[in-house]
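G., the chain you wanted modeled:
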Amino acid sequence: MRYYLILLLSEGFISLTTQDILDRELLALVYIVLNVLFFILYFYRKSEDKTLFMILVGGLMLRMAALYYDRTVAWLPFNTTDAQRFHELSVETANALPDVLLEHFTGFYSQVLGVIYYIFGPYQFWGHFLNISFVMLAATKLLDIADLMKLTLTNKKIMSFIWMFAPIPFLMSYALLREGSMYYFVVLSIYYFLKWTKDYRLFNIIMAVLSVYIGSKYHEGLIAVAVPYLYAFIFYDRQKNKIKMNGLNITCITTAFIVFLAFIGSEAGQEYIQKTNAETGGGSAYLTNLKVETPIEFLFAGPIKAVFLVYSPMPWLVRNPMDIITLLLDSSLWIYTTYLFVKNYKTIDSRYKLLMLCIILGGFVYGMGTLNTGTAIRHRNKLMSFTLVLMMAIKNKVDLDYEKREMIE
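Predicted structure as tokens:
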């Protein structure tokens, strides 16, 4: 990341200082070529063999092809209404700078993109490419996570292939939405959390929480996944490498539960509950008859809505070919991970169980405010990296245990 940041800052400095001399649009296109070359060289450095290198480069080239198609032929899925609104508001923000930083209902992302447009020029293709860049950086950080988990080379390739070519995350990370940059900060938080469980340096747990916080600036629901990190920091037994269940732990959990109920019963909590009952249109709406008005109803509805969010689209809610593709190639990943987790629960390392807790809490928070399949898929994929890392950690252990048994026999 630091090398790419240096490259971007250098490009930004040139763009700002030469904006009255050089064609900024042409300059942005030159930057894209330079950045693509940077990623190819970086992938070559990170790859252990040609296959892994080709997976990484193939994922980058696929996104570059999508960028060309979207800008010259027709908009791709997910890069429609919301994405175009982000672009328009970001252009307004750029035009108002440096005198004032406008605030929009779309929040932090429009401001960040507005600053980028001010520096590099209001070119939508450049915004798309920066999203692609975040996903590429996340791919390389996943390789670092794979090294922390001691994944076999085969499992590294599988993880990289899923990250690069899973269709729904690909489309969402490419589109001019906040998901692309959020993916990176979530992956970064997982890296620092797992690193903390290795060396217990305070810096790593701070970086894990800080990464989540930055990601939550794009969408505040993401802050829920910081709770397991903080919980681990307090109760993770460094000698036994597992969570300590003692009186203090139980007391803290009970207190947190009571405080949560008190919040839900408060005026601020009631405002949040009302959001869970918002009307939604279209054939993708679900659980429309499930109304939440009290803290108890909130507790019962939360798990149900979390399940719908994590496993959408439900088979009986499939509307079109895109939903079928999502069910077969996206939802199946979540179903398979759940199966592996339940089947191997007793042998799973506590730190990976905490990643499942991140998924559960994230699913609960996002699920309560989600009432249709399309939004559920978008929010669910903010948590995809947790699922991918968890699945590969379990699969890797199962594979190694199987090899050991084969050697003994």
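The mean pLDDT is 86.

Shout if anything looks off.
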